[in-house]
Amino acid sequence: MPRILVTTEDFDVGAELARLESGAGAIASFVGVVRGESDGRELAALTLEHYPGMTETALAGIAETAMTRWRLTDCVIIHRIGRLVPGSRIVLAAASSAHRGDALEATAFLIDWLKTDAPFWKREDFAEGGSAWVEARTDDQKARDRWQIGGTTAA
Amino acid sequence: MPRILVTTEDFDVGAELARLESGAGAIASFVGVVRGESDGRELAALTLEHYPGMTETALAGIAETAMTRWRLTDCVIIHRIGRLVPGSRIVLAAASSAHRGDALEATAFLIDWLKTDAPFWKREDFAEGGSAWVEARTDDQKARDRWQIGGTTAA
Amino acid sequence: MKILYFAWLRERIGHAEEDITPPAEVTTIGALTDYLAARSPAHAKAFADRRAIKIALDQRFVTDGAALGTAREVAYFPPFTGG
Amino acid sequence: MKILYFAWLRERIGHAEEDITPPAEVTTIGALTDYLAARSPAHAKAFADRRAIKIALDQRFVTDGAALGTAREVAYFPPFTGG
């Protein structure tokens, strides 16, 4: 059963992936980390806001979609909220299956959909002062939409 | 610089992925685990043989190809050899980059090429006795060859 | 009815939440947005570019034509940027 | 010249390694394979289906026509199945 977690705390990537190993032959994962700069401007922090209540439902829905579309044994989505300094982990998406194709594709799907379909917003707080809300990217929408055409891609 | 390791020992997935986080925004990984059965027959173990000397060269070449084809900050390939009981980790392939597309694609590339281009052989030792060398799969060759047509796939 | 604002909408309006009872003639999401935009200069500024705003009624996406019905919670926010 | 066998080739032949000095007329990989296949019944059985066997000369893939030259190590093995 998918594990969904929204938390201000850091998470243990090794422990989360070890949990997925049970009964699986392949575990794929994605970890997002706060970078030190954005468009050449040094970042002091990234602040993650979310819509409590709706977030868990959205993440569970994305995970369920992945479980239905690929032959997965399990999957996990963890997303942090609050103020995160550069180098901090933001997100973990991972999927396990008997074979690698399913695990790898489902992981890419989880992170693509998470970016566009889960109610999180990022604010960049700059080292020189000031802040700006990150704008949604057309490329993220395209990455999401590629999963809707003709089911799975080649793998 | 890519980390390449061929070892009889288990590896620490969390520590390996943490090493890739430095200077990256995205870390993708693949872990392979010995399953308990093969085509319905219960496995006692999987025994991994390799070609010492050629193995590290082949793995380093695959990692270098990935570093050249995608914008990666780093990558790692760890492959175990010897006798591995069900539930044991066999292989880790992981790549880090500024953005998720590169890390995810490069990880899929690493594991696809590893399967066909690195000198490892698997023998299945069955619970009921007897053993059989795993035969190379046409699907693995296809998965490998998809990376040769027109550079990267959509992501 | 609970109104929620997120990200720059919250910042521009100055708070995350409002409890309102819209007048009887406000029966659609579009009318509700017009009503909220008229509440203060800060609201007007926040709602200036409506194409940049997404709306959820009881945590489901809706567009201007949607009926308010017995909605308990309407949320306004920019497109998601998590992950 | 060092000859290496891996996986089922090693098992069928009964050892992993041989040091041999092929006769002067053995100048190609194809001829070397013929020469090795004639060494014993076990060798003959191991080399029965040559299409199932890959060959590396000094750790680089070669086919039957390749010249042995000053090769120090020739390895015989089935297609790789790692990962």
Automatic annotation (TrEMBL), chains A, B:
CDD domains, per the entry: MoaE
Reactions the enzyme catalyzes: 2 [molybdopterin-synthase sulfur-carrier protein]-C-terminal-Gly-aminoethanethioate + cyclic pyranopterin phosphate + H2O = molybdopterin + 2 [molybdopterin-synthase sulfur-carrier protein]-C-terminal Gly-Gly + 2 H(+)
This protein's pathway: Cofactor biosynthesis; molybdopterin biosynthesis
EC number assigned by the record: 2.8.1.12
Keyword Secreted applies: no
Similarity section: Belongs to the MoaE family.
Keywords per UniProt: Molybdenum cofactor biosynthesis
InterPro entries: MoaE_sf (IPR036563), Mopterin_biosynth_MoaE (IPR003448)
Organism for this UniProt entry: Acidiphilium iwatense
Protein name per the record: Molybdopterin synthase catalytic subunit
Assembly mode: Heterotetramer of 2 MoaD subunits and 2 MoaE subunits. Also stable as homodimer. The enzyme changes between these two forms during catalysis.
Domain of life: Bacteria
Enzymatic class: transferase
Gene3D superfamilies documented for this protein: Molybdopterin biosynthesis MoaE subunit
Pfam families (UniProt xref): MoaE (PF02391)
Function: Converts molybdopterin precursor Z into molybdopterin. This requires the incorporation of two sulfur atoms into precursor Z to generate a dithiolene group. The sulfur is provided by MoaD.
UniProtKB/TrEMBL annotation, chains C, D:
Organism the protein comes from: Acidiphilium iwatense
NCBIfam families in UniProt: moaD (TIGR01682)
Coiled-coil regions listed: none
The encoding gene: moaD
CDD domains for the chain: Ubl_MoaD (cd00754)
Protein name: Molybdopterin converting factor subunit 1
Record InterPro entries: Beta-grasp_dom_sf, Mopterin_synth/thiamin_S_b, ThiS/MoaD-like
